Amino acid sequence: MTDRIPSISESEWEVMTVLWHGAPKTANEVILSLQECTDWKPKTIRTLLDRLVQKNVVGVNKNQRIYTFFPLYSQDECQQAEAQSFIKRIYGGTVKSMLVQFIQEDSLSDEEINELRTILAKKQKKDE
Amino acid sequence: MTDRIPSISESEWEVMTVLWHGAPKTANEVILSLQECTDWKPKTIRTLLDRLVQKNVVGVNKNQRIYTFFPLYSQDECQQAEAQSFIKRIYGGTVKSMLVQFIQEDSLSDEEINELRTILAKKQKKDE
DNA sequence: AATACAATACTACATTTGTAGTCATCATTT
DNA sequence: AAATGATGACTACAAATGTAGTATTGTATT
């Protein structure tokens, strides 16, 4: 289903985040938003936007003189695609080995662990 | 502690995998190993090895005429570093949100879910 | 209408990555 | 010793990425 999502570079991802947070947005809005957390020049951001459009990850509405941009894939879709390829690259494709590592490290609070347990329990029940 | 691990590209990662699987190895051994699963030319693999050495991710023993190569970081360290930056990039830094997504998708078998539950349970007991 | 401003379009350039090739050298085989 | 073959050193080149700059053009202002 999810047609092959083109790869999104690190900087481009930040632009996507802004658009996922609310779209459509004008280039200027994106620029303002990103200048709060990065020190990229406006032109840089504009270039990133253009590249995302070329890659067909972002759409443009050119009806007005000032274009507006919007994501063509949901954040969820993109996260899953990235995660998929990441896991394949780094963990040889097995999701579990990664999860185990994360659980073993102290990246999770007690509460989070609890939540995860609950989710896992539910998941298991529902699946059968 | 873990000094900043340089970033390892996708192809380079495959070379690392071979070295983690057993080192030291000569370039030739690495090449043979990789030719089973890729169609890279020997020179390509050699270049990747050299770049890893430059990046200080792989060490070389030049005592013999034919060098041997070995990883300077454990697979675990590198996985954690990559995962860290990946999660920051894609999930805004929260480990849990990613785990939840993975659990929700059907990436896990029943058995795996069980294992995870066990691990979580143990983890929680031990922590307090 | 002329000018200034802002948005878009196009161009630029260094670095990293993927993917090798050529040249020099040392060891081994005639 | 000369030729051959394997290693290592250095070079190459296109695509992707990070990071902009210049040129053009439509809109708003005087």
From TrEMBL, chains A, B:
Keyword DNA-binding attributed: yes
UniProt-recorded Gene Ontology molecular function terms: DNA binding
Signal peptide: none
Swiss-Prot/TrEMBL GO biological process terms: negative regulation of DNA-templated transcription
Matches recorded under Pfam families: Penicillinase_R
Keyword Cell inner membrane: no
Keywords recorded for this protein, A-Z: DNA-binding, Transcription, Transcription regulation
Coiled coil: none
InterPro entries in alphabetical order: BlaI_family (IPR005650), WH-like_DNA-bd_sf (IPR036388), WH_DNA-bd_sf (IPR036390)
Membrane spanning stretches: none
Domain of life: Bacteria
Similarity-based family: Belongs to the BlaI transcriptional regulatory family.
NCBIfam families according to UniProt: BlaI_of_BCL
Name under which the protein is recorded: BlaI family penicillinase repressor
